[in-house]
Amino acid sequence: MLFNSINFAIFLPIVFFLYWFVANKNYKHQNILLLVASYFFYACWDYRFMFLLIFSTLLDYFTGLKMFDAKTSFGKKFWFWLSIGINLGFLGFFKYYNFFAESFAEALANFGLHVDVWMLNVILPVGISFYTFHGLSYVIDIYYNKIKPERNFIDYAVFVSFFPLLVAGPIERATHLLPQIQRERKFDYTTAIDGLRQILWGLFKKIVIADNCAEYANLIFNDSDHQSGSNLVLGALFFTFQIYCDFSGYSDIALGTARLFGVELLRNFAFPYFSRDIAEFWRRWHISLSTWFRDYLYIPLGGSKGGTWMKVRNTFIIFLVSGFWHGANWTFIAWGFLNALYFLPLLLANKNRNNIGIVAEGRMLPNVREIFSIGITFLLTVFAWIFFRANNMTHALSYIKGIFTKSLLSIPTVLPYSIFALLLFFITIEWVGREHQYALQRFGMKWPKFLRLSFYYLIIILIFAFMGKEQEFIYFQF
User: Distance between CA atoms of 359 and 246, rounded to whole angstroms?
Assistant: First the structure.
């Protein structure tokens, strides 16, 4: 069930009505409703993988209790590593089995050894990377005595499978979401309207910007050998906006939907393309994943407290693991490695935390230095996205080689002026709203009501005008 589908447009109001008008007298009844709705939502994707979601939930729920009740340090460690091993085992099998099998066979072939590798047609269960990381953070936090285990299974199951975040995040923490699940929630009109506004902007980003950019990005990437250098640059730019609007659009819809039920999810994007360096970009892009790796991998490895070698090592580990998390392809690892290289000079010069605040805060326009910094960071990001989008390393390298030819200076043959106009409209609104949680949060609030409502209707008209075949969100494959 896609967020941008008719089915979800029917599903959401029904759950909303039952939640606030039938089960509203008891938050425990609301939690039962949310759990049933979440399992139904997931079953609409593929009911066969429901057992994986339920098994993962039961595993971490009972592991948390066993660790907390363990009488010895050995018993606590046993249950901890059992949960970690099983969780990563399932994730590794479904996501990486074929990748490792193929890579192993290719490595042996380089030494003249040819082996037949048993390959499986493994279907990746939607959302497995996200709900697995929910459970892992919960188990790790209990192991290190940061939280106590949740003994109410319904509450814990809602934390893992809350339908707005189930299939593509944000990756939540028990310390943030569980307390909201365990208390009464009262309907707040202002919060609900804010949620609807964020859903509206998310749908605009997905349907109007991402899906239209995808059409031209696919056209160019799928025929890159016959494209001019200027066309290839446009293809990379289209994908750059596609992946941002696709994923941040999903996150906006997820956060807005959660607000309708009185729940605040973790922010996942903070206008990353306005970043002044790569370090700032990674503080603003897929925030819930970046902070997850920071807290549960980077800091335990020593973070930035050790010597130069340790800092460099940990930086490359975190970026390579982040790349590998996205999928079983060397292109994702190359993407992570390239971002680590971008980050390295900032780290060595101790400038990785220079740009903490919002760019041009309190000003309408950035200064020349900020424009230059944003432009360089954006171009580096666009270049890295080529590896992320390419089918394989050969495709990525040939794509880059095709850019740096004489045809780079030619006039592009792919010039969708309507998309350019929409992108300009989109970037303008994002820039004006960059100081808030999402672009439309305070946009036009000082306008007369008629003018503000007219603007919202314009967004709705654009959504319906460009709505075509339902397109899946990119991050569903991760």
Answer: 23
